[in-house]
């Protein structure tokens, strides 16, 4: 989608510290980390929100979680614990309307999140 910052990252028009990439998703370090490990995993296809997911997106959604597991293992947070967050729409804190998952870890994460 034109003007979408995450689409521009996928197209390598905007630099990012990429930590994982496959044919469905791309993961990179968050520019304003909220934990020692804070990685964003984005779909390569522009899907604005979770509300826009359809049956044709099953492989993309599966790839988001598979990438999260792999990254958590690589960053040595899989055993101690990590949080996966997907915000949907403005009241939940979504600021970039391109589906993405946050991986947060490397410290104790309080509950409720905020």
User: What fold name stands as the CATH topology?
Assistant: HIT family, subunit A
Helix/strand order, N-terminal first: HEEEHEE
For the biggest β-sheet, the strand order reads 1-2-3-5-4
Q: Helix- and strand-based class?
A: alpha+beta
* Shape estimate: globular
What characterizes the major β-sheet? 5 strands, antiparallel
Tell me how many strands there are.
Answer: 5
| CATH level 1 class label | Alpha Beta
Cα-atom radius of gyration? 14 Å
Oligomer: single chain
Distance between the termini: 31 Å
Helices and strands in order, then pairings?
Layout: H1 5-10, E1 18-21, E2 25-29, E3 37-43, H2 58-74, E4 82-85, E5 100-105
Antiparallel strand pairs: 1-2, 2-3, 3-5, 4-5
In short:
By secondary structure, this protein is of the alpha+beta class. The protein is built from 2 helices and 5 strands; from the N terminus they run H-E-E-E-H-E-E.
Main features:
single chain, 114 residues, alpha+beta, HIT family, subunit A, five-stranded antiparallel β-sheet, 2 helices
Description:
The chain has 114 residues and is of the alpha+beta class. It has one domain: HIT-like (HIT family, subunit A, 2-Layer Sandwich), CATH 3.30.428. Helices cover 20% and strands 23% of the residues. It contains 2 helices and 5 strands; from the N terminus they run αβββαββ. It has helices at residues 5-10, 58-74; strands at 18-21, 25-29, 37-43, 82-85, 100-105. Strands 1-2-3-5-4 form a 5-stranded antiparallel sheet, covered by helices on one side. Strand 1 and strand 2 (25-29) form a beta hairpin. The protein is globular, with a radius of gyration of 14 Å. The N and C termini lie far apart (31 Å). The mean pLDDT is 96.
């Amino acid at each position: 989608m034109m003007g979408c910052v995450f689409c521009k990252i996928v197209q390598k028009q905007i630099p990012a510290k990429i930590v994982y990439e496959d044919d469905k998703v791309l993961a990179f370090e968050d520019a304003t980390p909220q934990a020692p490990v804070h990685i964003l995993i984005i779909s390569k296809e522009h899907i604005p929100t979770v509300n826009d997911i359809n049956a044709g997106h099953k492989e993309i959604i599966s790839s988001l979680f598979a990438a999260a597991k792999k990254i958590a293992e690589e960053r040595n947070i899989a055993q101690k614990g990590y949080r996966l967050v997907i915000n949907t729409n403005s009241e939940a804190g979504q600021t970039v309307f391109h589906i993405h998952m946050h991986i947060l870890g490397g410290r104790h994460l309080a509950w409720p999140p905020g």
